[in-house]
Amino acid sequence: MPRRGGLTAAVDLIDPHLRTHRWSVLGAGVLLVLGIWMLAVTPLALDHALQPPTRDGALLLGGLLALYGLVAALRTALLERAGARAATDLRGRLLQHLHRHGSPEDRAEGTMPPTRFTADVATLRDLVAGTGPCLATGVLTLMALLVVLVLNAPMTALLVGVTAAVYTLVVLLGRRRVAAREQRAAAEERTLTDLTQELLDARGTIRAYALEDPASEGLAAAGRRAGAARASARRARALVDLAATVIAVAAAVTALLSGTDRVLALGAVTLAVLLMHRAIGHLEELPAAASAGTRLRDLLDHSSGVADPAEARELDQVRGEITLQSLTADDPLLDGLTATVPAGQHVALLDRDGRESAALLAYLMRSAAPEYGTVLLDGQDIAGAPVADVRAHLAVVEREPALLTGTVREAIRAGRPEATDDEVTRAARGARADGFIVMLADGYDTMIDPRDPVLTDGQLRRIAIARALLRDAPVVLLDRAGDDVAPAEQAEVQHALQVLMTGRTALVRSREAHCVLAADRVLWIDGGELVEDGAPQVLAEDPDSWLSAWLEHRGA
């Protein structure tokens, strides 16, 4: 299938989510058509009201305009409702895709700007709720108006058609010229800014070589070019506005000179000009929607993570033995790394910069895969199992615990959604979190708001540990979970982590000496190879070991 971009991509992205709100969209469509025909017959109602002026005609015109206002308001409300809900669904779809199919690097801070999920999705929402309907209203109402006029006043229809065509052509061509001049003005202003910064940074050189006068002259010349470019853009815009005004006035004067149909002609010409002016304004918003559609389509087409195998088979009962067989990759470098972690053992993973150990956790989580080699859980190749099934056997606690927005109870229950309130409480007690949770304003029902945190970093980590305890998985992955904890909370967090690891296999990625020394075993990776494997206490006493040198460097 050919790759779609631009407006086609924007429509394709939002359409499935609009279908789930079909009644709102259908209702808005009916109101849109009704409003179009109301506007189209307004000039006739105006002519009936004023030639000659009658009370009944005035009431008819007023009622028609009031009814149109009501129809337009209801249409807007329905489209806003459908558009907002469709945008919410699309945003969730995008985030779900990124989490399921993106690599850890894709989700790293700064590599996936949040504007993809906010501004770009909002642009598509506005395409549905504002830009598209308003553009359709302008064009379709003009067409309906011409049909009405052809049946009732053919010469007026000709005047309206010529006016709309000339007005649209002049304004579109003029605005294209204005856009080109504004781009040139923006480029000149950037040049002026860059030159100013360069001259400010070169003050020493300018003084040393007595270049004050040439520098000032160069800056003045750049300023004149920027000013002239901006003035040219403003003149072009003013000329376009003037031309549009002249066309509208000329059409209005012609309408007034058209004899018995002058009221109808004046109303029809005025309506046509207003419709085209509004439609052209919304037409200029389409490139932004096309760009947003292309970016979001690229995001959904991008899949750097690991997908389920074609014939996936769920894992049998897992006790927690982990086997890494001949893992090989270029980035980060792994050169046939092999190791086995017996069920229940706690292993600290160390390397120079943390990239290799992070890759091992990612391989086990199935958010990435090595180029060669296999990862086994109790002798079962996880590459042949559904990703969700593999992750169901893991509990993860990270340096920055992602608790999301919701209550404390919901944050813990995310570990096992079907858990009872009593099970949530027991998990919190095991993580030494129950004591401070019950002291909160609403206890377990206290809302967690990242913008207004009421919990300390150590408390947030203990809630994350409670969530992992509730998961009750045989394998625990601690990704710097005990690092950078405030001294006053370090003992509580460390105790909670020990409770979590008890009876479970644990892989610990940490840069804290006390976390590494608390492990049963240390695996040190360097140059893609396993260069050291042993008990931390034994390695720490060996002055030639990698761990000993690392501990000495950290002052431990």
How would you briefly describe this protein structure?
The protein has 556 residues and is α/β, with parallel strands linked by helices. It has helices at residues 6-19, 22-50, 55-101, 119-152, 154-201, 203-208, 212-256, 262-283, 286-301, 355-365, 387-392, 408-413, 421-430, 434-437, 457-471, 487-501, 513-517, 536-540, 546-553; strands at 322-329, 334-341, 346-350, 372-377, 380-381, 394-398, 406-407, 447-448, 475-479, 505-509, 521-526, 529-534.
Structure description:
This protein has 19 helices and twelve strands. The mean pLDDT is 90. Strand 9 (475-479), helix 16 and strand 10 (505-509) form a beta-alpha-beta unit. 62% of the residues lie in helices and 11% in strands. The strands form three sheets. A six-stranded mixed beta sheet has the order 6-9-10-3-11-12, with helices on both faces. It is elongated and about 105 Å long. Helix 5 packs antiparallel against helix 7 (212-256).
Q: Mind telling me the C-alpha Rg?
A: 34 Å
Q: Kindly report the average pLDDT value.
A: 90
Query: Which structural class fits the helix and strand makeup?
Result: alpha/beta
- Helicity range of the residues? 55-70%
Please summarize the sheet with the most strands.
6 strands, mixed
Shape: elongated
How far apart lie the N and C ends? 59 Å
Number of strands: 12
> How much of the polypeptide forms β-strand, as a percent range?
5-15%
By DSSP (H or I, 4+ residues per run), the number of helices equals 19
Major sheet strand order: 6-9-10-3-11-12
Which regions contain 5 or more consecutive residues with pLDDT less than 50? Answer: none
